[in-house]
Amino acid sequence: MAMLSCDPSQPHRVTFRCQDRVVELVKPKAEEFLPAIVRCLGDDTLTGFEINNQSESFTTIRVLATIMNALAYTHNIEFSLTPHYSKDAV
Fold it and tell me: Domains along the chain?
């Protein structure tokens, strides 16, 4: 299982874990998530995924959901998502 987590005490950090690999991002942009997952999984076949982040409404969580759904379907990878929601978030 791969795990994606965000510690409420450090909401600017996002951590990926898969088996013995750990990748941590600080203040990540949406387009940085896929390379991080590739590094974490050690799977070069994932480099073919494309993310269109031109739309302002295409939020980070939507990008993550798209990636995770694609991985679950193509690689049979189960994700555990531990989000942190700010009380100020819209």
Answer: 2-82 (3.30.420)
pTM for this predicted structure: 0.41
- pLDDT tens, position by position, 54-72: 443 445 556 666 666 666 6
Q: What proportions of the chain, in percent to the nearest 5, are helix, strand and coil?
A: 35, 20, 40
Write the CA distances from 9 to 1, 6, 61, 64, integer angstroms: 24, 9, 19, 21
Query: What is the token pair recorded at 64?
Result: 């993550």
User: Do 16 and 4 touch, CB atoms closer than 8 A?
Assistant: yes
